[in-house]
Amino acid sequence: MSVDGHLEALRREGRIVIVGASLAGLRAAETLRAEGFTGTLTLVGDEPHEPYDRPPLSKQVLLGKVPADHTRLPRRRPIDAQWRLGSAATGLDLAARRVRLADGDTLDYDRLLIATGVRARPWPHELEAELDGVFVLRTQDDAARLHHRLAAGPRRVLVIGAGFTGSEIASACREREVPVTVAERAAAPLVGALGGVVGEVAAELQRAHGVDLRCGVLVTGLEGDSAGRVRKAHFSDGSAVEADIVVVALGATRNTEWLADSGLGAGPRGIACDAGCRAFDVRGIVTDDVFVAGDVARSPHPLFGYQFLSLEHWGNAVAQAEVAAHNMVSASAERRPHLWMPSFWSAQFGVNIKSVGVPPMADQILVSQGSLAEHRFTAAYGYQGRVIAAVTFDQAKWLDFYERQIEQAAPFPPEFTTVDRRPEGHQPVSAGFPDPSQPTHGPTVTLSGYSPTDRRVSFTPRRA
Amino acid sequence: MTSVALLGQILDYANRPDPYPLYAELRRTPVVRDESGPYLVSTYWEIKGLLHDPRVSSDARNLTPDAAAAVGHEQDPDLPPSFLLLDPPEHDRLRRLAMRPFGPPHTPRRVFEMHGELAGIVSGLIDGLRGRDTVDLVDDVSYPFPVTVICRILGVPREDESHFHEWADTIAAGLDPIGTAEERAAMAQAVRQARADLARYLAELIEERRRAPRDDMLSAMATEHGPDGQLSPVEMITTSVLLLIAGHETTVNLITNGMLTLLRNPDVLKRLRGEPGLVVPLVEELLRFEPPVQMLPQRTTLADIDIAGTVIPQGAPLFLMVASGNRDPQRFTDPDRFVPDRPDNEHLGFGHGLHSCFGAPLARLEAQLALTELVRRLDAPQLVEDPPPYRQNAVLRGPRHLPLTIGGVRD
Ligand SMILES: Cc1cc2nc3c(=O)[nH]c(=O)nc-3n(C[C@H](O)[C@H](O)[C@H](O)COP(=O)(O)OP(=O)(O)OC[C@H]3O[C@@H](n4cnc5c(N)ncnc54)[C@H](O)[C@@H]3O)c2cc1C
Questions:
Q1: Does residue A255 line the site of ligand 1, with CB under 6 A?
Q2: Closest Cβ–Cβ partner in B49, B53, B89 for A370
Q3: Rounded distance between C-alpha atoms, residue B33 and residue B20, angstroms
Q4: Average pLDDT over residues A418-429
Q5: B389 touches chain A (CB under 8 A)
Q6: Contacts of A419 in chain B (CB under 8 A)
Q7: Which of A62, A388, B67, B119 could cysteine-pair with A383, CB 3.0–4.6 Å?
């Protein structure tokens, strides 16, 4: 059969299996149907719920504004899929093109999409992690439980880890007027993602809102009462805090264990794939029928020196799912690269934080508009003399401009005058990222690999 | 460097009914210097880019002196500019303070809660058309409706409208970049006078509201304190002048253009009658197709900006031709067709970025209500003349009158 004929048959009556029934999985399924795929589509998800949205879980849900089970993702179109919810995929046979499920069933596929995302890293001491009142926050069920306990009026909440999730949880606690302590290993909150300069602003925000913020400390142990309820946490500086809720927000682990013996290049840092979302096998050879998207994927980005980026960003999951789905049912000449500009948002302590590009790659930062002291600013991040990222606090309207600057590899520090440039906007300073060789609890972006050449790719996003 | 002589033609009153072919010509060079001085930007992506570009200023004090003289931007020595003509951080503070009593985050439900009241005003105006077989949509509905609304919101007595109507018109006319140096000087003089008169009027009103507050924006501005403090007395005046004018001179065009477009597209009008929900995307399409604000002529550059093959030098006057961007075929398929349920319609009708229309949610609601009610209640409306007579303004473009014959008014 000709290649074209083969593709035609695949599009008409092929079997596509998607493992991971969340944001990336759902958007990919919808895109497949939108692209005209009429074959069998199976969505496998280990959670019992239909695909739901996670960002509200640490925001509106904890505030009680939206019930945890009301964050179902809106559907863009009917997908006419076979749903296998509540059943985990436990194995993959690459040669036989078959997925094994926990209940013993198997699913044969012509194309497979892996979108198993990440899970919250649990508290490392198992017995302490099992104490009543110790939580993580990743799923709808996690959010429902945590909200329930917050609503009961705890005496104090301890949040371990001041990344985005931890900071948002602390913010929700303060909005509910619940006393909260935040313990962070680094010198300030959000340092892994945004660097020390912006981290200082985040620290000020937390303190201004009454958070008992403790930086540069480790939580060394959790202590329970006789009934097995958590009551106290001990810190590396010798101090302790009484808390009846402890939320462990130490970043995430990729859901790749089920692929351990599959021969796919899957490990703790995710599944590496090419810019067309095709997974690499353990030999570093790209597969042609296994695709990856969302939080579990790592893919090379031309704009950032072809480094393999893993991005735990909502927008990335959507964009990558769309590209993967398109490429799954397209001839090679029709395939598209996933060239998404990394971007994400966060809402905490009344501030809207947005980021584009890859801040942790930066060595320097310049507050190009507004002022850190007012907690309202735009900061440009520079790496080797070019603009690599930008972050806004309550100034999202400027972000589009900086996004173009990143795409055009514009020089850093920016040479031009802008509106709202303050004295602090005249001199770049060190961005203050921790030494990458030091372990942290997981910045939003991990970088690895080397640029194949020094050349820059001109990156023009599809318009319209 | 290429330059064109299109601005004169666009401003020429003879082209008011249909400036769109001129915009199409303009788009052949996305960024170009007009003979008369300003740089005209006419394509969607370039306009949008500049609306988000922090090197672009709305503060005329950043024009080079020559440029300022050439486009007739003169500072009013008596009254500072409103936030429309300021940059951050002043702009942001003033806009936040003005937003406090009007919209989110502090007053998120204000516009939403006015729904019933607005519907009542429109139906009252339409009731008034009973027994007539010709009406002037502008004088009978599209002007009085938003004016009544903005008066209520601000807390300006509707009865005083006869005073400030003319001031408002003069100030609005002042937005047009016009002809000779003498004409510009005369216009500037008239605008200054009108602003001073309106300012005096509003100052008295604000003082009254400060002493005896009511449930309106002037009272809120005069009495409430937020995290940004309070507007100064002069800022209260410039802000309320701005809101009063904006509430007066723009939505009237949106409603009139809407009815005119519907009467030119009877199949759409018929569809809207049977499908009132269509009005939501329809008003967006209207904002794209016939935007009440055709161009933004009050920007300048803080640095040389290299864009679409042209370098706009620092301090040059910059006109963003949003009505042209809205018809850019690179962005909108079939841009010259009115498609009431056009998908992916991110038009420039309310601008974009920092200065995007303050009153947008209100204008949307007013146009949606007015058009659904007009279409539902007017029997057999027909245009008396097409094109109708236009107002002089090229920036705030719209018919001065829209005479219609009607077969009757339904309940
Ligand atoms: C509390 C919270 C707040 C967030 N806030 C923001 C924000 O403000 N901005 C932002 O940009 N991003 C935010 N994110 C990140 C965003 O939600 C993720 O980027 C997005 O959910 C990724 O989608 P995904 O489909 O790739 O992975 P996931 O949503 O993690 O979905 C993966 C799914 O696969 C399932 N699965 C795993 N293993 C298996 C298996 N073996 N078999 C079957 N199913 C399996 C998982 O249970 C899960 O349902 C937030 C995340 C959380 C948890």
A1: yes
A2: B89
A3: 19
A4: 93
A5: no
A6: 54-57, 87-88, 302
A7: A388
Q: What is the C-alpha separation between A461 and B318, in angstroms, rounded?
A: 26
Tens digits of residue pLDDT in A58-87: 999 999 999 999 999 999 999 999 999 999
Put simply, the chain B residues between 88 and 117 with a CB less than 8 A from any chain A CB are 88-89, 92
Distances (CA, A) of A283 to A289, B33, B57, B95: 16, 58, 55, 58
What phi-psi label fits residue A190: left (phi over 0), alpha (psi between -120 and 50 degrees) or beta? left
Say if the Cβ atoms of B52 and A464 lie within 8 Å. Answer: no
pLDDT class of B36 with cuts at 50, 70, 90: confident
Task: Specify the pLDDT at position A315.
Answer: 96
- For a substitution probing ligand 1, which of A82, A314, A348 has the most ligand atoms within 8 Å of its CB? A314
**Smallest Cα distance from B172 to chain A, Å:** 26
Mean pLDDT within B136-156: 96
Is B55 at the interface with chain A, CB within 8 A? yes
Q: Tell me what the mean pLDDT of segment B348-371 comes to.
A: 96
Residues of B in contact with A368 (CB under 8 A): 54
Q: What is the pTM of this model?
A: 0.90
Min mean pLDDT across A345-349, B135-139, B193-197, B261-265 is at: B193-197
Q: What is the C-alpha to C-alpha distance for residues B202 and B233, in angstroms, rounded to an integer?
A: 11
Q: B251-264 and B266-274 helices cross at what angle (nearest 10)?
A: 110
Q: Is A377 in the pocket of ligand 1 (CB under 6 A)?
A: no
CA distance A54 to chain B (A): 23
Is the pLDDT assigned to residue A455 strictly greater than 70?
Answer: no
Sheet holding A106-108: strands in order across?
A89-93, A98-101, A106-108
Provide the pLDDT confidence category of residue B21 given band limits of 50, 70 and 90.
very high
A369, A376, A464 member nearest B54 (Cβ):
A369
- At residue A1, what is the residue type? M
The amino acid present at A306, given as its one-letter code, is: Y
Could you report the per-residue pLDDT of A245-276, keeping only the tens digit for each?
A: 999 999 999 999 999 999 999 988 899 999 99
pLDDT digits (tens, 9 = 90+) for A350-373: 999 999 999 999 999 999 999 999
A23 has pLDDT over 90: yes
* Residue A461: pLDDT over 50: no
Residue B284 Cα to ligand 1 midpoint, Å, equals 34
Out of A49, A59, A116, give the residue to mutate to test ligand 1, the one with the largest number of ligand atoms within 8 Å of its CB: A116
In a 3-state reduction of DSSP, which class is residue A332? helix
Q: Could you give the ipTM of this predicted complex? A: 0.85
Q: Which two tokens stand for residue A254?
A: 């990729």
Q: Which pLDDT score is estimated for A118? A: 97
Q: Is B53 close to A368, i.e. CB distance below 8 A? A: no
Query: 3-state SS of chain B?
Result: CCEECCHHHHHCHHHCCCCHHHHHHHCCCCEEEECCCCEEECCHHHHHHHHCCCCEECCHHHCCHHHHHHHCCCCCCCCCCCHHHCCCCHHHHHHHHHHCCCCCCCCCCHHHHCHHHHHHHHHHHHHCCCCCCEEEHHHHHHCHHHHHHHHHHHCCCHHHHHHHHHHHHHHHHCCCCCCCHHHHHHHHHHHHHHHHHHHHHHHHHHHHHHHCCCCCHHHHHHHCCECCECCCHHHHHHHHHHHHHHHHHCHHHHHHHHHHHHHHCHHHHHHHHHCHHHHHHHHHHHHHHCCCECCEEEEEECCCEEECCEEECCCCEEEECHHHHCCCCCCCCCCCCCCCCCCCCCCCECECHHHCCCCHHHHHHHHHHHHHHHHHHEECCEECCCCCCECCCCCECCECCCEEECCEECC
